[in-house]
Amino acid sequence: MRGKIYLASPHMSDEGYEMKYIQEAFDTNWIAPLGKNVNEFEKELATKIGIKASAALASGSAAIHLALKAAGVEQGDIVFCQDLTFSATANPIIYQNATPVFIDSDYETWNMDPVALEKAFEKYPNVKAVLVVHLYGLSADMDRIVEICKKHNVVLIEDAAESLGTYYKGKHTGTFGDYGIFSFNGNKIITTSGGGMLVSNNVEKIDKARFWATQARDRARHYQHSELGFNYRMSNIVAGIGRGQLNVLDKRVEKKKYIFEFYKRELGELDGVEMMPVNEWDEPNYWLSCMILSGKVRPLEIMEALEKDNIESRPIWKPMHMQPFFAGYDFIGDGVSEKLFENGVCLPSDTKMDDEDLNRIVKIIKGVF
Ligand SMILES: *Cc1c(COP(=O)(O)O)cnc(C)c1O
């Protein structure tokens, strides 16, 4: 069998930046828990995206959880959550005993449909927060989403787990709302093996999030706790990987874009193929290259043909309102997320691929057609 091609796998720097920072942590015995790498990673990421404060956490999921907590989301509160996403977006709403209402996507952005969002506010005037996602590194239409949230005086949280390196009208995704979150899970555009970041221009709230993330330990000689705490901080070793990876983020975005353009050139003209939408205001990180099929060829045929040649591909995320666990919650929309799920394919987008790999993939897909 030929060499395996992954959907998206960890890609450490050729220069060995990550090992340098890890070695530094070993040399100074700052293995755990916090230390220079954590502090510097927070600062470097905040500078890179243009935001005042950030807290390095154990995962993107933990960051969403603390964003909801910082937003004051509590038992019984309603949160409008993008329907088309990974379950990690929605799960923390349940951790807070709050109630998600799922909002459909539109075809123009694949992300939260502003029209469906407005409609949701008519049905539920009392909402605590809106949780928008920048799926596959494509930005949501932030001007319109921000405007609606301001009008209704609701906290906006951006799940930018997949969109580090994505800019909307020149401004980095994750910096439009009250809170933004990033993930450094293994298949994201940069990875620390696992980890996340909560960001905000509200410095006090980020300080508070750091406090909750370190078991909510009060300032006292003894162990004293006035609030519920979590063990959510990133370790100093993991942060070292993050610092190294941040150095190659731009390079990764460049390669992801190259991969997308390659597919678009080779597959974009095939019958019934439409590549994911790239709007004129969007500078995506192209985390995954995705396409929608409207002709005779179905996503499963493509995925199976690729799998036979040891190549990974995936369906589009299955919408939350179609998930058995979330079936009891309301959904506002017209079935766009469902259609994207049924007709979409995520193509291999590993930045370690070369042209030979890309030609191998394209040839198989053309063969199915
Ligand atoms: C990966 C991902 C998360 C979760 O991040 P983890 O670091 O894996 O907890 C959340 N939302 C989206 C959209 C993701 O893709």
In short:
The chain has helices at residues 17-27, 36-49, 60-70, 87-95, 114-123, 142-151, 203-213, 236-246, 249-267, 299-308, 336-343, 355-368, and strands at residues 53-57, 78-82, 99-103, 129-133, 155-159, 167-168, 171-172, 179-183, 196-200, 273-275, 282-283, 289-293, 314-315, 331-332, 344-347. The chain is an alpha/beta fold and 369 residues long. It folds into 2 domains: 17-246, Aspartate Aminotransferase, domain 2, CATH 3.40.640.10; 249-368, Aspartate Aminotransferase, domain 1.
Q: What features would you describe in this structure?
A:
37% of the residues lie in helices and 15% in strands. With 369 residues, the chain is an alpha/beta fold. The protein folds into 2 domains: 17-246, Aspartate Aminotransferase, domain 2 (3-Layer(aba) Sandwich), CATH 3.40.640.10; 249-368, Aspartate Aminotransferase, domain 1, CATH 3.90.1150.10. The strands form 3 sheets. Strands 1-9-8-5-4-2-3-14 form an 8-stranded mixed sheet, sandwiched between helices. Helix 4 (87-95) links the parallel strand 2 and strand 3. The protein binds pyridoxal-5'-phosphate (PLP).
